[in-house]
Amino acid sequence: MRTDARGYLLVLGAASLWSTSGLFIRWTVASSGFTPLSLAFWRDLTTFLCLLASLAILRPRWLRVARRDLPWLVGLGAIGVGTFHVLWNLAILYIGYAAATVLLYSSPAFVALLAWLIWREPLTRWKVLAIVLTLAGCVLVAGPEEVVGIDLTASGLLVGLAAALAYGGFSLFGRQVAARYSPWTVLTYGFGFGTLTLLPLQFGRPGPWPASTETWVWFGGLVLVATMIPFGAYLAGLQQLPVSVASILAASEVVFGAFIGYAFFAERLMGWQFLGAALVVAGVTLIMTRRKG
Fold it and tell me: Distance between CA atoms of 185 and 201, rounded to whole angstroms?
């Protein structure tokens, strides 16, 4: 139980910090010439360079990985980092943030099903119920009126579901290597391959320079607070928990994000959003207390 508790805290802590990414992204874009896609590239590149320099100076032996693990690290970076960022931006463009968020948090269902098919992780009734509760909660937190009012085209639906699959790819590929390497090793390779995936989209595009001091502060927060620390914590959590459980816990990000929007951007919270938050919390609590059932 002590090991499980540590895993729960790591993943929930990661979700709380991931929820700040919207805060830093808004402030970075507002104070600079970043486009959403260029911001994704520079975010991944800066994260990779910071991790690479830190390990090269402090723990150079952590940069060594077995050749057999390279396909998993390539998959984690190319799909779970680079491709996800592209698809996430496209989903927001096609169907809006609310609907994209709801489709994104169908990811735990994909992860649980694939983990059951590939690794025979138990797909218990409690796990299925937790997925249903968290997904229903995400719909309510995102705002039913926002989701229902979207003209959901077939292309928009496919892009949104593809983003959810790519998002789940980080957990699935990360599960294969998390137990054998430091989280910082996995992240260094993951963000390196993620940067290479986004690089072709940057050819011929000027950088958002010069940048103001304010932009560097918000961008630094995005890299450190909303990227390096939570991704590292999540991978550490994967060392303690089944990947399907970790992905369900990560859905709590949407609740943290809703309250950040209320606190920093004066976004109103309706009654159904509080109900949605309660459903997500219920799903997370259920998977923590009945995981063995």
Answer: 26
List all residues 6 or more positions away from 166 whose beta carbon is below 8 Å from its beta carbon. 79, 80, 83, 84, 87
Distance (Å, whole) CA 221 – CA 227: 9
How many whole angstroms separate alpha carbon 276 and alpha carbon 274?
5
Q: 86 with 198: CB under 8 angstroms?
A: yes
Mean pLDDT for all residues in the chain = 87
183/187 Cα distance (integer angstroms): 6
Model pTM score? 0.89
Predicted confidence (pLDDT) at residue 1 exceeds the cutoff of 50: no
The residues spanned by each domain of the chain are 2-289
- Amino acid at site 27: W
Per DSSP (E only), the strands in 121-276 are: none
Residue 248, helix vs strand vs coil: helix
Between the CA of residue 138 and those of 98, 104, 148, 179, what are the distances in Å?
A: 9, 10, 14, 30
163 vs 165: CA distance, rounded Å: 5
Q: Do residues 112 and 131 make contact, with C-beta atoms less than 8 angstroms apart?
A: yes
Residue 73 backbone phi and psi in degrees, to 5:
-70, -35
Query: Cβ(270)–Cβ(140) under 8 Å?
Result: no
Split at pLDDT 50, 70, 90, the class of 151 is: low
